[in-house]
Write a structure and sequence with these properties.
The protein has 352 residues and is an alpha/beta fold. The protein has two domains: 208 residues, Rossmann fold (3-Layer(aba) Sandwich), CATH 3.40.50.300; 131 residues, Rossmann fold (3-Layer(aba) Sandwich). The protein contains 13 helices and 13 strands. Helix 3 packs across helix 4 and helix 6 packs across helix 8. The mean pLDDT is 87. GO terms for molecular function: ATP binding; hydrolase activity; nucleic acid binding; RNA helicase activity.
Length: 352
């Protein structure tokens, strides 16, 4: 199957060609036709499966090919659990709208509220948002969703885990009309709250389950090295970095302090290194991710803030300097490599 089989607008096909994307992944093959049909969708797929385009392409095709329900309200709202994931999706969306007259904007927590209100007043067609900040703007009547045509929830399970259930319900209520289509993506459909919220948000949805969200990605080679103590673990890490060839590397640590300490140590050893943790201001986090995605650094040392959603195709190695507390988080961490059919490596340093 090729993207031309979906009868997409030529501008979208040209953009995909420019991005070097030729063949749809399994989740794209199954989800895009449902999205294009106008039916609601409840979908699950393993990490790195290419699901972002599985909802962006139907959204773009709908906006291009149909008349708006409202001249002012956003036509498409895309909700995501974290600012980093929202920035990634917004980046892909900007590529798709680049050759069209359609406007897209992002509404994220940690950024200037009044500036966002001014942008909303310009009547964007697409809004990419985190639920908390979007709900705040709704409460202040900075936007209305009466004319919303497509509501997309990505990583809905994590939005619920982060406590956004009430905000999702408020957003759903503001856009509750018969002509709205809803696409919900989750790492797993085996999640009690997911089924509850889906019953409220979705109308007779089609179900697409490509593997399971926590299933092993066979494109990733996994290794474990045992360490006796911290110095041994750091020596193992230095040996890996000096003796193996990789495009870009993400190293996961347990705490912000470990992130800063390890990044400083690696930089002093001559490695081009950036660090990312939750105590940074949003502008600084955006700058770090932008620089890393453009290849200005080879190594990113981070906490679990970067374990989900980031679509960095040049990352060929993930190292767990500290092991995560939960198996599910391990899957999401190593899923930063081996994305969309590429091969990747994952190394875990296990010790005290």
């Amino acid at each position: 199957m090729q993207f031309t089989d979906f009868s997409l607008d030529k501008r979208l096909l040209d953009t995909l060609d420019h991005m070097g994307i030729e063949t749809p992944t399994e989740i794209q093959q199954q989800a895009i036709p449902v999205g294009l049909s106008g039916k609601d969708l409840m979908a699950s797929s393993k990490t790195g499966s290419g699901k972002t385009l599985a909802f962006l392409l139907p959204a773009m095709q709908r906006i291009i090919s149909t008349r708006a329900l409202s001249k002012k309200d956003p036509r498409v709202l895309i909700l995501l659990p974290t600012r980093e994931l929202a920035n990634q999706v917004y980046g892909q969306l900007r590529l798709l709208v680049a050759n069209t007259q359609y406007k897209a904007m992002k509404i994220l927590g940690g950024e200037n509220f009044n500036d966002q209100a001014k942008l909303l007043a310009r009547d964007p067609h697409f809004v990419v948002a985190t639920p908390g900040r979007l709900a705040d703007h709704l409460a202040q009547h900075h936007l209305h969703l009466n004319g919303l045509e497509l509501l997309i929830l990505d990583e809905a399970d994590r939005m619920l885990d982060l406590g956004f259930a009430e905000q999702l319900k408020a957003i759903n209520k503001a856009a509750d009309h018969k002509r709205r289509q809803t696409l919900m993506f989750s790492a797993t459909l085996d999640h009690g709250q997911i089924n509850d919220i889906a019953a409220e948000l979705l109308k007779s949805p089609e179900h697409v389950d490509v593997g399971a969200g926590n299933i092993e990605n066979l494109d990733i080679t996994q290794r474990i090295y045992l360490a006796d103590h911290l110095d041994h673990k750091e020596a193992l890490l230095e040996s890996i970095l000096n003796n193996e060839t990789h495009k870009q590397i993400i190293i996961f640590t347990a705490t912000r302090e470990d992130t800063d300490r390890l990044a400083t140590k690696l930089a002093a050893s001559g490695h081009k290194t950036a660090s990312l943790s939750g105590n940074l201001k949003q502008s600084a986090r955006n700058q770090i991710m932008d620089q890393f995605s453009r290849g200005l650094q080879k190594i990113l040392v981070t906490t679990d803030i970067a374990s989900r959603g980031l679509d960095l195709l040049n990352v060929s190695l993930v190292i767990n300097f500290d092991m995560p507390k939960f198996a599910e988080e391990y899957v999401h961490r190593i899923g930063r490599t081996g994305r969309a059919g590429a091969k990747g490596d994952a190394i875990s340093l296990v010790g005290p």
